[in-house]
Amino acid sequence: MQLSEQEIVRREKLTKLREMGINPYPAALYPVDATSKSIKNDFEEGKKVVISGRLMSRRIQGKASFAELQDSEGRIQVYFNRDEICPGDDKTLYNDVYKKLLDIGDIIGIEGELFTTQVGEKTVMVKNFKLLSKSLRPLPLPKVDDEGKVYDAFNDPELRYRQRYVDLVVNPHVKDTFIKRTKITNSIREFYNQKGYLEVETPILQPIPGGAAARPFLTHHNALNIPLYLRIANELYLKRLIVGGFDGVYEFSKDFRNEGMDRTHNPEFTVMELYVAYKDYNWMMDTTEKLLEKVAIDATGSSKVKVGDHEIEFKAPYPRVPILEAIKIHTGYDVAEMEEDELREVAKKLDIEVDETMGVGKLIDEIFGEKCEHHYIQPTFIIDYPKEMSPLTKEHRTNPRLTERFELMVNGKELANAYSELNDPIDQRERFEDQLKLSEKGDDEAMFIDQDFLRALEYGMPPTSGIGIGIDRLVMLMTNNSSIQEVLFFPQMRPEKKQVELTEEEKSILDILKPQGEMHLADLKEKAGLSNKKWDKSTKGLTKHGLIKVEKTEDALLVKYTG
């Protein structure tokens, strides 16, 4: 492992601390009785406190030093005075441990008394301190100049998402997003619990990936010697519980879909699904409006939420627009009576990419997604989907070609999907068989036939309405974030590139080449000043590591930096 100069120095300090008999990672409980927030809120001059946190800054001035300590609630100023900490002749704890062996980022515990500085700053006078955890890597702290401009901020998304633990330390506002996320889920739980619905858990490993049209992750169970799938939805298991006699069940579930990644999709995501007996999709629309209005107020203090350039009003009621009418409004085409071939032609005329595996449902879905969805900024229920798009949904009571389904669109994206649930086992079997035909045509997102679920329906499921709400997208809306990675503590990332250890000769070649980007091979070799043997070995090594590439031009060989 290659260490930076600062990392080497910190390890040397670690060794010195141990040589002094100080354990840099003690095991004993530290009796914290206050936080930065509680001190500021309930400040009392002279009050004794025990606090702990991370050392984030300090200004050493000989025998005294002001510093900042950061804990889970914020920051507080602390004051180190040599004679307060070391009242006797031995000044080692201040002179050596505090001044020389502690670093920014170290976690310490402090016993002290509260006082107010001459400029009115609430501060802790340190009477004693203890090192609780030595930090071996320097924090990437931003620097602020005299004019208040920030430099070297830790804002590279790749690093922030990969090293969320650092992001949370040096960018305190990031924590606010995740605190708000918990407020949102707690608000939903409170809403449903007050109605008497039961929060449950269903299997993540499933023998059949049912409840949605999506590509699953596949694994293998060694003891049972069977394939298993990470769930793509928990719908079919929750419906089994409705068959079993529960009137209302809900679950916050981790679902997994082996599909693309972008600013609104992560392969692992959170969905809340609710199923209530003796209700229909009209009732679910009314209930969802009230839920989201409550969530917005609980999370942000208002039913109006700023999202990008828009102000989204979550106050009920929301408009209800049939999907086929939406397509007619935004494309000019009436697709209500069209068959598959006609729909494919319309899609092509609208410059929508289609293929032969797509059936009626997929084609309508593509047309709506490409040409209509983005128009719905304010919360809008898109309702009454064609039967081919909704294999788990009850047939519409007035039009047999449609189903009683809605999707809630907010800020141009789907936030929720809900149905009057199909409870006719014979109709459900036929719908599954239609999905099987799509699978045979090559649609790898078509649903499997779940024979056990069909058996459950044959015992009788009462009329039921169900909904799935994308929690990650809901949090994005409520926190004004445009990327799903911002609302996941640890989003899925591409594998981190291994740090390449280079020889001194390889480093010298890169030092010359990197500022230029590319150079003629002869010029680079001359500037490197290496023997033929070392040159050949070094350029081969750099090529192998993917850091340089040699290309032939009309008059010479060109070396390009590709790292």
What does this structure look like?
The protein has 563 residues and is α+β, with helices and mostly antiparallel strands. The chain is 35% helix and 24% strand. The protein contains 18 helices and 23 strands. Strands 8-12-13-20-19-18-17-16 form an eight-stranded mixed sheet, with helices on both faces. A five-stranded mixed β-barrel has the order 1-2-3-5-4. A three-stranded antiparallel sheet has the order 9-11-10, with no helix packed on it. Helix 6 (164-170) crosses helix 7 (172-194) and helix 11 runs parallel beside helix 12. The longest helix has 23 residues, at 172-194. InterPro entries: Aa-tRNA-synt_II, aa-tRNA-synth_II, aa-tRNA-synth_II/BPL/LPL, Lys-tRNA-ligase_II, Lys-tRNA-ligase_II_N, Lys-tRNA-synth_II_C, NA-bd_OB-fold, NA-bd_OB_tRNA. Belongs to the class-II aminoacyl-tRNA synthetase family.
Task: Summarize the model shown.
The protein has 563 residues and is an alpha+beta fold.
Please count the helical segments.
18
- Structural class comes to alpha+beta
Largest sheet: 8 strands, mixed
Radius of gyration: 31 Å
Outline the low-pLDDT stretches.
none
Helix content: 25-40%
Principal-axes geometry comes out as globular
Strand content: 15-25%
**Beta-strand segment tally:** 23
| N-end to C-end Cα span | 20 Å
Tell me, rounded to a whole number, the average pLDDT.
93
> Main sheet: which strands, in order across?
8-12-13-20-19-18-17-16
EC number: 6.1.1.6
Binding site for Mg(2+) 2: 414
Binding site for Mg(2+) 1: 407, 414
Catalytic activity: tRNA(Lys) + L-lysine + ATP = L-lysyl-tRNA(Lys) + AMP + diphosphate
